[in-house]
Amino acid sequence: MHARDIERENAGLRALLDLGAQLLGAHTLREVEAVLTSVALRLMHSRYVYFLSVTPMQDALIVTHSAGESDPPLGFRVPRGQGLTWQAALNGREVLMVAREQIPPTAVRTPGAPDQHLLFAPLYTSHNELLGVLALGRVEPPFSTQERELLLAFAHAGTVALERAREAQKAAEAQENTLLVLGLAMEARDYETQGHTRRTVKLSQQLGRALELPKAALDDLRQGAYLHDLGKLNIPDRVLLKPGPLDENEWALMRQHTVTGENLARRVPGVTSGALSVIRSHHERWDGRGYPDGLQSENIPLLARLFALVDVFDALTHDRPYHAAIPAAEALELLRAGEGTQFDPALLQTFLSVLSEEGTGPQA
Q1: pTM for this entry
Q2: What residues make up the domain containing 88?
Q3: Are residues 140 and 205 in the same domain?
Q4: pLDDT (tens digit, 9 = 90+) per residue, 8-55?
Q5: Quick one: 214 and 255 in the same domain?
Q6: Number of domain units in the chain
Q7: Contacts (Cβ under 8 Å, ≥6 apart) of 8
Q8: 3-state SS of the chain?
Q9: Among 59, 174, 239, 344, whose Cα sits 20 to 30 Å from the Cα of 323?
């Protein structure tokens, strides 16, 4: 083997190692696509690289990620059977290489784009399912046979990473649905709190983003919001649905729902410790007079302090068995009255800002 061939082979191996290392850090479909396009652009010396995802509902290929000089915009749609991209997709697993002087009239062209040498690599699973097509172009020089083989290896690595990301996404969606069903089970017992689960999930996420919480904390918060009232499934209807004030024994029973909920949630696969803290501690108070543990100020977990605001606001502004809904402006005044006693003062100010931006409360 000549020295040039050895160097070319070594360069290809280095490129695959680089791709593999970056794909290990890609956890979502879009992250995998970003790695494929950016690495291919750099290592294949292309003018552009596009990833076109299959959209079965539209029976089309759609540009979902790009790197380099962008001709078709993200969302550009290629209907089934049209252009070289579909030709490559429907011809099997091999990479289609087209010299710029051989581009057929039927090719899908972007106005103003120069004629280019093209490579198209379809990504097929082991079950022969098309995931998408990786498309490369450059004006000069023409792509070589070695580059075509390297792109084929890229496509194989990308397929594995996309399948892994898709399975992770399915697992996350399944868990999300499980958490939602458990939250809705509570609502099924108490028809006057319909929508409470979804509303508190949405509003707590808005507050978390306003506080610039990291993704992991937002995930914990979302899980906790779904499951915060899980323990009420163990509360008898005579107490849970009582239209009037609870007596001392009934309140003692009601207060158990946070600990019961935490214990039940521990049995749900994937529920995080952060979510458990929301379930257990969202009825603690800043002044230490809450339950179940009588925690005070910053000893209360941050996510529980945050969620307490959301939970109380939604409870006040929607009908419950023991009270009718009150206007948002009145609810905000009650929240302000609890500053430094029931609620974390700093979090309360942020929450009021979020509600103001959403148009829920009066403008400051």
Answers
A1: 0.57
A2: 3-167
A3: no
A4: 545 555 666 677 677 777 778 889 999 999 988 888 889 999 999 998
A5: yes
A6: 2
A7: 146
A8: CCHHHHHHHHHHHHHHHHHHHHHHCCCCHHHHHHHHHHHHHHHCCCCEEEEEEEECCCCEEEEEEEEECCCCCCCCEEECCCHHHHHHHHCCCCCEEECHHHCCCCCCCCCCCCCCEEEEEEEECCCCCEEEEEEEEECCCCCCHHHHHHHHHHHHHHHHHHHHHHHHHHHHHHHHHHHHHHHHHHHHHCHHHCCHHHHHHHHHHHHHHHCCCCHHHHHHHHHHHHHCCHHHHHCCHHHHCCCCCCCHHHHHHHHCHHHHHHHHHCCCCCCCHHHHHHHHHCCCCCCCCCCCCCCCHHHCCHHHHHHHHHHHHHHHCCCECCECCCCHHHHHHHHHHCECCCECHHHHHHHHHHHHHHCCCCCC
A9: 344
What integer pLDDT is reported at residue 232 of this predicted model? Answer: 84
Same domain membership, residue 200 and residue 160: no
Same domain, 244 and 286: yes
Query: Can you give the CATH number for the domain in which 268 is found?
Result: 1.10.3210.10
Residue 218's pLDDT band (cuts 50, 70, 90): very high
- Rounded Cα–Cα distance for residues 131 and 89 (Å): 10
Can you say how many angstroms the Cα of residue 244 is from the centroid of all Cα atoms in its chain? 41
Residue 274: pLDDT band (50, 70, 90) is: very high
In a domain, 135, yes or no: yes
| Residue 197 and residue 145 share a domain | no
Q: Could you tell me if 135 and 119 are in contact, meaning their C-beta atoms sit under 8 angstroms apart?
A: yes
Q: In the predicted model, is pLDDT for residue 124 greater than 50?
A: yes
- Report if residue 179 sits inside a domain: no
Long-range pairs, 6-10, Cβ under 8 A, ≥24: 8/146
CATH number at residue 12: 3.30.450.40
307, part of any domain: yes
Are residues 51 and 150 both part of a single domain? yes
